[in-house]
């Protein structure tokens, strides 16, 4: 829920601070349409803003919130779960509360535990907490980065916001792309902690920024408070039975879903044809007395459409299903442009646009909260790339095949390549690639990054010569590899490493961005991914790799745990990537994409933006139109989305020549 923003200056606030703060908060209206709250202290140089989406404590939960002695000021975006129990225990210890808001528990927890208060918070959140007594500000982001939080440091002053557009609303925050980040946008994989924009940083998941006044300056420290911390391979407990792990999955998921059904407004579910969302709906349907409202995307291309399986699940649990049918007119045009404005980064596939359209329908149906299935693939080994690494490296590092012969493993690899052929070029690489720095840090080059290494080879030469000169010698794969905490990879199983590196990059910059919070909150709608509950995650990391992916079956332990609530066809089905049909799959989509290219990536726009060489870009587009190779087309489709997206974002945020209507 909500959006937060603000800034802290080493000196006094500027004379226009009140106007600037209100402008920053107003950019977050879509995140918090139910009202604004502000805290301003001119002498301390502090300005804090909050845009509210009312979900819990509709009457008295406005923010900012204050401690009993008024010394601490708090703004929160997100939800704290199990807050009623925590609040009651704190009341028994003598703490008073001025509201029924879940957010307020952070204040007495901070008073009691200091900086370790975050260890006692369960949920998805971004926090700004000012401690007047210590004259310090704390910015915190949840453990997986479900909720966004960005910051900028300028002349010793710190600006922050739930979205980058809030930072840009302050006249002292400069606007511009970062040349290295432009290259990362094209290859789809961001360096953790970075954005597409120069000197705009993303607070990393599981981190807090501690800003301490020191005389006339502000000292800034980035501190990690949580990580996945997979067990060392030689210390992993393999003594527990498969039934034990299956039971633990059931117990932890049941609690995580039950907590996420807590709200003072109706709660629905997203429903695709995958195990993850079907598990969420199955559990929620058993917990709630009335039928659960389920929202499903349907595509006009049968090869990509999961709606029939989703309907079977909805019928099985008697859910009230709402199906959103999406064609070219829905996936391109204005919806495409609005999705970019909300995501503030490019996307390789119009799935983000589809989810934007779905959240809009959720809002129209009177819902503000849905439980979702994001995070399951990250925790239980669901993605094809993770499975490929398990089959290639995982059984070797287990020092046995657990009853699976090398011939069987090879047959599984061949079958996986065949069943995922539709996605080669974007989700899977058609051939094995490696990078020396990634090999050194991880022990191998994870399969998930290999298709984007192919894209990098095509994309880099398209850049303008000035940018190529500026980033000469820059190695984006090495930079990504070096961003990982090596201590979290050393001595771990190959599957753990693959899951960890994906979660630190693609989970945050893709799944939880244009596939999650940004397109949901675009329509004032909060998504709650129960799988990313940190209690669930800490349970899942202890499951032996050969039970996460067992032979040819990915997410085996989750399948077994949810077996009785899933349709048989889904229980037996191999993981199928959830994507929108790319533009090259249909003439209407080709024309719709070309219409956007004509408007936002014509020669005048390309020249004005100065990001790409006009002749080389024109030749690439000609080659794309003449291409007949399906793998090459999937890769080029993804790259065109990034090329187009950068030009749209340039107009929206750098030159401000155009912003979507109704925003």
TrEMBL record:
Keyword check for ATP-binding: yes
EC numbers on record: 6.3.5.4
GO molecular function annotations of the record: asparagine synthase (glutamine-hydrolyzing) activity
The entry's keywords: ATP-binding, Glutamine amidotransferase, Ligase, Nucleotide-binding
Top-rank EC class of the record's enzyme: ligase
Pathway where this protein functions: Amino-acid biosynthesis; L-asparagine biosynthesis; L-asparagine from L-aspartate (L-Gln route): step 1/1
Pfam short name (any one): Asn_synthase
SUPFAM superfamilies cross-referenced by the UniProt entry: Adenine nucleotide alpha hydrolases-like, N-terminal nucleophile aminohydrolases (Ntn hydrolases)
Catalytic reactions of this protein: L-aspartate + L-glutamine + ATP + H2O = L-asparagine + L-glutamate + AMP + diphosphate + H(+)
Domain Glutamine amidotransferase type-2: 2-214
Keyword Transferase: no
Family label: Belongs to the asparagine synthetase family.
Designated name of the protein: asparagine synthase (glutamine-hydrolyzing)
Organism from which the protein derives: Reichenbachiella carrageenanivorans
